[in-house]
Specification:
Length: 216
Amino acid sequence: MARQAKAQRILTHTQIWTALDRLAERAGMSPSGLAKRAGLDPTTFNKSKRIAADGRERWPSTESVSKALAATNSSIETFMQLIGDGARGQQSVPLLALAQAGGGHFDDSGFPAGKGWDEVALPSAGDEHAYALEISGDAMKPTYRDGDIIVVSPGTPIRRGDRVVLKTSDGEVMVKELKRRTTKTLELQSLNPAHADRTLDAEKVAWIARIVWASQ
């Protein structure tokens, strides 16, 4: 039994490459597009690079996978899900223009509420309360461009470095990157380097939710 367990492979060559393909698809890119976005040679994730001329399996490096996750704002947990049970299906989620999000379109928990929401089918976030926001203007370039759609998941845990949507007690809705979070303050980095970073008192944040997908 011990010999059998030792011989068993936890991850296979096919699973890893399939997960990278799914990661690219989830971000609306080809494998070469993902490699380029990650700062790698555009051919790094090409299918022709996955098997050597002598038939040996070529595996992506840990560094290249890490860069691909960073480029798509994805966690290692997301990558493991893509390895495990297949590509995410489609989920019909409420859609609202980000410019309208400051009105009465959310309840106290940050869930979609009220009128004015459209609906769009996008990769599933695995969260029944997930919703989509459409970016308008250039305020968040180069991270998000005019017309991009982001999927927000109120039920997904948030960590340092995640891109988030939050609403203040004054009704301001903003998209930022979470730099640091304590019991008293939130330090937020602007996605556009031309805009100043923000520090907010935790008590002034009505709700905060993680961005889990973007149509780029």
